[in-house]
């Protein structure tokens, strides 16, 4: 099922999500097409919803250059790792951990080959989904330094929030179907 069909088939209780998806993705005016579709791809991967991820990857591959498509996937991958590590540092009461080197490879953050602002926006979206305050703060600061205003930042986070919620609904409906079968 393609992404639009998946969204259109959302249950009645997710009507707000369908409407928000339509406004934020189908009619988006806040983000460039690359920013939008990279956010959709990276956010879908972060949801861990198989159906949504497959549909978003298929749609994103058509909307993005191959380099931007790979960069969006890289943003989701590296932030999936970083969000756990840095969220741990944030949550632990042992301050010593923050003084030690991370010893984690994060080359994708520097070698993605696309507009740095776009990659940072995707890292911010994934960090918001994964709930890592340290990473949200860090990437929000970087995008502001690169010229992003409030509307652009919130535009990316809005898209990420809707994609995340769609993934949760899709997975809930799949569980329900499996139990009924």
UniProtKB/TrEMBL annotation:
Question: According to the lineage, what is the superkingdom?
Answer: Bacteria
Query: Where along the chain is the active site annotated?
Result: 132, 135
A GO molecular function assigned to this protein is:
disulfide oxidoreductase activity
Question: Where is the signal peptide, in residue numbers?
Answer: none
Task: Kindly give the Pfam families that the UniProt entry links to this protein.
Answer: CMD (PF02627)
User: Per UniProt, which keywords does this protein have?
Assistant: Antioxidant, Disulfide bond, Oxidoreductase, Peroxidase, Redox-active center
EC number(s) reported in the record? 1.11.1.28
Show the catalytic activity: N(6)-[(R)-dihydrolipoyl]-L-lysyl-[lipoyl-carrier protein] + a hydroperoxide = N(6)-[(R)-lipoyl]-L-lysyl-[lipoyl-carrier protein] + an alcohol + H2O
InterPro entries in alphabetical order: AhpD, AhpD-like, AhpD_core, CMD-like
Q: What class of enzyme is it?
A: oxidoreductase
The record lists its disulfide bonds as 132-135
Q: Which GO terms describe its biological process?
A: cell redox homeostasis; response to oxidative stress
Q: Where is the Carboxymuconolactone decarboxylase-like domain?
A: 102-175
Q: Which family does it belong to?
A: Belongs to the AhpD family.
Summarizing the function annotation, the protein's role is: Antioxidant protein with alkyl hydroperoxidase activity. Required for the reduction of the AhpC active site cysteine residues and for the regeneration of the AhpC enzyme activity.
- Fetch the PANTHER family from UniProt: ALKYL HYDROPEROXIDE REDUCTASE AHPD (PTHR33930)
Would you tell me the protein name for this molecule?
Answer: Alkyl hydroperoxide reductase AhpD
Q: Highest lineage ranks of the organism? A: Bacteria, Pseudomonadati, Acidobacteriota, Terriglobia, Terriglobales
Q: Which gene encodes it?
A: ahpD
């Amino acid at each position: 099922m393609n992404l639009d069909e998946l969204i259109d088939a959302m249950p009645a209780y997710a009507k707000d999500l369908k409407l928000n998806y339509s406004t934020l993705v189908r009619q988006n005016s806040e983000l460039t097409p690359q920013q939008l579709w990279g956010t959709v791809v990276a956010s879908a991967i972060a949801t861990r919803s198989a159906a949504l991820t497959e549909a978003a990857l298929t749609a994103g591959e058509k909307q993005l250059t191959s380099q931007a498509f790979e960069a969006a996937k890289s943003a989701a991958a590296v932030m999936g790792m970083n969000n756990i590590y840095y969220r741990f540092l944030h949550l632990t009461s042992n301050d010593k951990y923050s003084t030690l080197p991370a010893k984690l490879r994060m080359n994708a953050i520097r070698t993605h080959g696309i507009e740095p602002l776009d990659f940072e926006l995707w890292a911010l979206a994934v960090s918001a989904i994964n709930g890592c305050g340290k990473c949200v703060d860090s990437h929000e600061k970087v995008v502001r330094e690169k010229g992003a205003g409030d509307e652009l930042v919130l535009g990316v986070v809005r898209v990420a929030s809707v994609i995340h919620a769609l993934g949760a609904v899709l997975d809930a409906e799949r569980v329900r179907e499996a139990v009924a079968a």
